[in-house]
Fold this sequence. Notes:
532 residues, alpha+beta, Transferase(Phosphotransferase), domain 1, three-stranded antiparallel β-sheet, 35% helix, 10% strand, disordered C terminus, ATP-binding, Ser/Thr_kinase_AS
Amino acid sequence: MMEVMTVLLAGRYRLERSIGRGGMAEVHQAHDAVLGRTVAVKTVDLAAAHDPTLGERLRREARATAALAHPGIVTVYDTGVDGDTAYIVMELLPGRDLAAVLREGPLPVPEALRVGEKVAGALAAAHAAGIVHRDVKPGNVIVDGESVTVVDFGIAAVEQEAGAGLTATGTTIGTAEYMAPEQSNGGAVSAATDMYAFGCLLVAMVTGRPPFTGGHPVEVLRRHLEEVPPRLGELRPEVPADADALVEALLAKDPASRPAAADAARVLAGARSGGSAGAAAAPAGAPTAPTTVLAAGTTRAMPTAAAAAAGAAAAGAAAAGAGRSGSAGATTVRRPAERRWVGPAVVVAAVLLLLAVVAWSLRPPTGPGPEADARPTVQEQTTEGAGAEPTDAPATDAPATEAPATEAPATEAPATEPTVSATPPADTDPVTALIVALPADVDVRETLLEDWDEVLAAREKDQEQKVADKAQDLLTRADELADEGRLDPADRDALAVEVEAFLGAGVLEQDSSGRGNDRGNGGGDDENDGDD
């Protein structure tokens, strides 16, 4: 008989079973002993991060998401720290993540436009409040019949930053197949960055795979930077012309040229109805609606929000899901789509440990299409337990116009045990993630990855001496790149720390060449040779 977990977190949340895992984070189905409802609890091992600020930053991002009340965004109920465990309590969503749906094949075009419209509505609400997701991809979109929900706003990025441990704004966060050119270069991240990823998401829904793929994450990043994506209408001729033009604009290399989320939602709504909405030229970085600020920790019987701009209001209405509710305290409410700016957290720390989620998400795809981006998300694959959440709004709350009979049976929730999307493979390593995330030219990252691959190949064959030699070659190469000004010395030192941590203390001293280095590996005492 399977052993049932009895962990009681914060004296309130009884963790019943694990439903997803990745890196330092794990998602549990849990029971809220105070309110008597089933919830999802995401826990993060703070001890593994070696980052004293991680708990506070996760709490900040969770509170930001909780205040960002919108039917297309997962509801956050609570957050806190219990010992070395940070936790975020969320609604347990029925359905499957979009990555799992797309593994069965591309969506019918009308269904892809419908899902895209709702995702754009959720992004419009977030961007109007100044929140950037930074990891928009199929694995972070949950589909359950007519309901479409975006999860992990800001939270995944904080975890990845803490795991990557790189300095200041140079950290590269995201998934290679959905990463904007400016993001892959370690540049500034904005709402326009989300919109590029959203364009990739639309392509994946319609064709079964994102616009750029490859055998190595660096190859994918290079293609984002240099290549022109194929026109969606050429891949699927039945795609409406407006939607085709929208995707072309979303995938512009220049962030300022990409449409805003509210405009994208409007275009997709027009394409679905057979009309012509026309892609607006408003940049994605410019919010189109005011924000309703919800005080964190209060019970939210929501007042009427200020009237939003037409585009954002339409996007929010289009994104409304069936039977969804939101509360920061415990009260059942419907959720208007607004809140204040909370900027992305910035990591200012030396590299300590890398989150395995980053390593996995940036490694080459292990299967066709969007499957490679799947990651743990808050979801439940059966509707049988829906009654376990007494604070949910009644099912009749869903808009009556959002149930066309012809829409995507692939999103129907099968009557199976609650599951989450695929978890990272066990063979990922933090050194690869660090190199991919370096704020350096693609050529630099590619060169270092080639050297590291040789280390891994020798390690797989149990060639200990060759492992040491190749590792030293990698660090020597990093020294040379730093001397040439192509690699930040702090990142070079971080790489050395991570290589030694991964291979084990003392491995580098086995270097047969006797070269050593200035980090105390085989050459630090040369000046004392011959004494006494």
